[in-house]
Write a structure and sequence with these properties.
With 181 residues, this protein is an alpha+beta fold. The strands form three sheets. The protein has a four-stranded antiparallel β-sheet with strand order 1-2-4-3. It has a four-stranded antiparallel β-sheet with strand order 5-10-9-6, covered by helices on one side. A two-stranded antiparallel sheet has the order 7-8. The longest helix is centred in the middle third of the chain and has 12 residues. The protein is globular and about 45 Å long. The two termini are 23 Å apart.
């Protein structure tokens, strides 16, 4: 996508991972998070630089509404204050917010569209990884193939539920792991 060069940048020590502020109003902020930048502070100390701390440097009232994995690029929504965070979080919980992701997966998917409904749980021996687990939480991902070529598939994904690592776990479980995962 092409963006004007004058969009506000939320700078930090890592010049190659600068999130861009795309929208700001009294209720929310929308940030374009680059791959490689954590959404929220993590462990170890090296992961304390993140989208949240960069946003809060110029918008102190910013609060987390949802997250993206560190290697994932995409839009992050932050609330402006506790009331907005509560309202936006409830909208996510009630599935009033639709999320879409695009990924390139290994292999040529034979089905044009469908649902992946597999429960996901913590992989105890290899925490914090997740895996398909019959005792885990229910999880549903909708997918639609956009293109297939050269042993790879470009797929659009819609997580209906919001389990940790849901998309990567579901795609790997059906034999089409996300490339680079």
């Amino acid at each position: 996508h092409a963006w004007p060069d004058n969009r506000p940048q939320l700078t930090g020590p890592d010049d190659m991972a600068r999130p861009f502020l795309l929208h700001a109003d009294a209720h929310c902020l929308v940030v374009d998070k680059p791959a490689g930048l954590p959404a929220v502070p993590g462990r170890p100390q090296a992961l304390h630089d993140c989208a949240l701390t960069r946003v809060q440097a110029s918008h102190a009232q910013a609060r987390v509404v949802h997250r993206l994995d560190m290697p994932t690029s995409g839009l992050l929504l932050f609330a402006c204050g506790a009331d907005a965070q509560h309202a936006l979080s409830r909208a996510f919980e009630r599935r009033l917010v639709r999320k879409r992701y695009v990924a390139v997966v290994d292999g040529e998917m034979a089905t044009e569209a469908g649902d992946i409904s597999l429960p996901i749980g913590l992989h105890w021996p290899d925490r914090p990884r997740r895996r398909v687990d019959p005792q885990g939480q229910s999880a549903l991902t909708r997918f639609r193939v956009r293109a297939v070529a050269h042993g790879r598939t470009w797929v659009e994904l819609e997580p209906v539920t919001g389990r940790t690592h849901q998309l990567r776990v579901h795609l790997a479980a059906i034999g089409h792991p996300i490339l680079g995962d």
